[in-house]
UniProtKB/TrEMBL annotation:
Its EC number is 1.1.1.133. Residues 3-282 form the RmlD-like substrate binding domain. Catalyzes the reduction of dTDP-6-deoxy-L-lyxo-4-hexulose to yield dTDP-L-rhamnose. This is dTDP-4-dehydrorhamnose reductase. It catalyses: dTDP-beta-L-rhamnose + NADP(+) = dTDP-4-dehydro-beta-L-rhamnose + NADPH + H(+). It is an enzyme of class 1 (oxidoreductase). Keywords: NADP, Oxidoreductase. SUPFAM superfamilies: NAD(P)-binding Rossmann-fold domains. Belongs to the dTDP-4-dehydrorhamnose reductase family. It holds the Pfam family RmlD_sub_bind. GO terms for molecular function: dTDP-4-dehydrorhamnose reductase activity. Transmembrane segments: none annotated.
């Protein structure tokens, strides 16, 4: 039996892990929402670790509003960098393995081929910079971590681009979506499977890993695929127009496809289209 703390458990990824809990009876999960355990409260974190005997901490807690982070820099760094340090310190102190999630936005997007784990980071947004600082803080403290960088997460839970498009489709809004960035949409349910696989196999190959679904897409391509999979007659579908750029406060990498060679030693990866279709078959 392994005992696992999941922080930020009511977010998108946290809920995906909660969903598969019944299939993993050998894991004793402690799901903690932001209300139950505020990871920026160092005393609360240390007390919680002292009172339990965890094998793993899966940190799903984060400040994820890329736009708002530009004007709430302090808050973004507190959650994404400082609190990641508190968790790493508590993990080091209590001999707990930390599974921490990071992002493709740690890169600047100037590469033209998939990013490998050792590529130079150079975030171009506050969110990306705060997540990178979180990675660095963890690495300075100990070695027993998995930092999983992923991209463009979506699921049936929480707030994400996929759900925004479903809502707009329902409203029959006219969609104008950018072709400026290329990355890989990733079903957060697949990331949840990877995390549980690491725990179940007691994988000790610590380090940074890149994980996403396979293939590449622009946000426009992703939207087109979502609309194609909607259970609606053609006439009922929303109109969709590609645009060169969509005005935003935060800059986003124009290219952020991740190389999955390393993570394929742990889990098989599937194409983003296949994973999207599976999700939409079950939720439409
Ligand atoms: N979403 C995406 O597209 C991507 C996400 N990632 C990373 O994946 C991870 C999971 O993201 P995702 O599930 O989508 O994010 P969500 O925003 O859906 O969930 C984050 C959760 O963290 C909680 N949280 C925020 N502050 C604190 C705090 N101080 N203490 C405890 N909990 C807190 C939030 O709670 P509340 O709502 O109550 O504040 C929320 O439930 C994050 O590390 C993110 O950076 C990486 C790439 C892509
Ligand atoms: C709503 C909307 C957005 N866009 C553009 C804006 C932006 O360039 C792109 C993506 O929009 P979003 O703001 O929803 O996505 P964004 O918040 O940038 O998503 C990111 O979230 C963080 C947490 C990550 O870690 C990243 O991997 C990535 O998933 O789509 C349109 O072109 N049309 C629209 O109607």
């Amino acid at each position: 039996m392994k005992t696992v703390l999941v922080t930020g458990a009511n977010g998108q990824l946290g809920q995906c892990i909660q969903k598969i809990q019944p299939q993993h009876a050998k894991i004793n999960f402690h799901f903690k929402s932001s209300r139950d355990l505020d990871i920026t409260n160092v005393k609360a974190v240390n007390d919680y670790f002292s009172n339990h005997d965890f094998d793993y901490c899966v940190n799903c807690a984060a400040y994820t509003n890329v736009e708002l982070a530009e004007s709430e820099e302090e808050k973004a760094y507190l959650v994404n960098a400082e609190a990641a340090k508190y968790l790493a310190e508590a993990c080091a102190e209590n001999n707990v393995t930390l599974i921490h999630i990071s992002t493709d936005y740690v890169f600047d997007g100037t590469k033209k081929t998939p990013y490998v784990e050792t590529d130079t980071t150079n975030p171009i947004s506050v969110y990306g910079a705060s997540k990178l600082k979180g990675e660095q803080n963890i690495q300075e403290i100990f070695n027993n971590y998995f930092i999983i960088r992923t991209s463009w997460l979506y699921a049936e839970f929480g707030k994400n681009f996929y759900k925004t498009i479903l809502r707009k489709a329902e409203e029959k809004a006219n969609l104008t979506i950018t072709t400026e960035q290329k990355g890989t949409p990733t079903n957060a349910n697949d990331l949840a499977e990877l995390i549980v696989e690491i725990i179940n196999t007691e994988n000790k190959n610590y380090g940074i890993y890149h994980f996403s679904n396979e293939g590449e897409a622009t946000w426009y391509d992703f939207t087109k695929e979502i609309i194609q999979n909607l259970n609606l007659a053609e006439a009922e579908k929303p109109s969709l127009k590609p645009i060169a750029s969509y005005k935003t406060k935060a800059a986003r990498p124009v290219y952020s496809v991740l190389d999955k060679t390393k993570v394929r030693n742990i889990i098989q990866t599937i194409s983003w289209q296949e994973s999207l279709q599976q999700l939409m078959k079950n939720h439409n």
